[in-house]
Write a structure and sequence with these properties.
Low-confidence stretches: none
Order of helices and strands: HHHEEHHHHHH
Number of helices: 9
Mean pLDDT: 88
Number of strands: 2
Oligomer: single chain
Radius of gyration: 18 Å
Structural class: mainly alpha
């Protein structure tokens, strides 16, 4: 793997995100309680804290998602938070199968740390430490991916992409169909 490069600049990031870099740095330096309103909801019999970003941060996160994260190709077995794919399509692929296996990551977003997110920006996007750190601060809260942020699903997919590759390899070795 080639090493990350540092030729991307603050001006490049500002252009890509359509947001002034001084505002990006200001947002990155704010406390979570200033950036997110948190509400507790019950989803599938589990209580989750949903962190709704303030309007400006949400707009920045949408730009990060659309312009930086979504263009990165993912395994065809990934359906969550992928353009043109849906949970319904994923379920449809499993209809009438004799056996179906599934796995779930316990407390998924909370288990995905800011260090994991930093590695996505540093190594997958090949950004320098400064920009990777700035983007990590803009997309994480309290040391992990926040439920409710527009970037969390795309970042989770990228963090988990080595597992997708390994699942595809194991399935091929065992002669199994892997559908997602």
């Amino acid at each position: 793997m080639r090493s990350p490069v540092d030729h991307y600049s603050d001006a490049w990031l500002s252009f890509e995100l359509r947001h002034p870099v001084d505002r990006l740095r200001l947002l990155a330096g704010m406390r979570p309680e200033e950036l997110y309103s948190v509400r507790r909801v019950e989803i599938n019999h589990k209580i989750r804290d949903i962190s709704n970003p303030c309007d400006e941060l949400k707009a920045v996160q949408r730009s990060i998602r659309e312009r930086l994260l979504l263009p990165i190709p993912l395994s065809p077995i990934v359906y969550s938070d992928v353009a043109g794919r849906s949970a319904a399509q994923n379920a449809e692929r499993h209809l009438h199968q004799v056996n179906v296996g599934s796995a779930d990551i316990r407390d998924c977003y909370n288990s995905m740390t800011n260090a994991m997110v930093f590695r996505v920006f540093r190594h997958t996007l090949r950004l320098g430490d400064g920009l990777a750190d700035l983007l990590t601060k803009l997309t994480t809260s309290r040391g992990h991916l926040p439920h409710g942020a527009p970037t969390s699903g795309a970042l989770a997919n990228l963090i988990l992409s080595p597992i997708d590759i390994e699942l595809e390899r194991i399935a091929a070795e065992l002669g199994l169909q892997i559908r997602s």
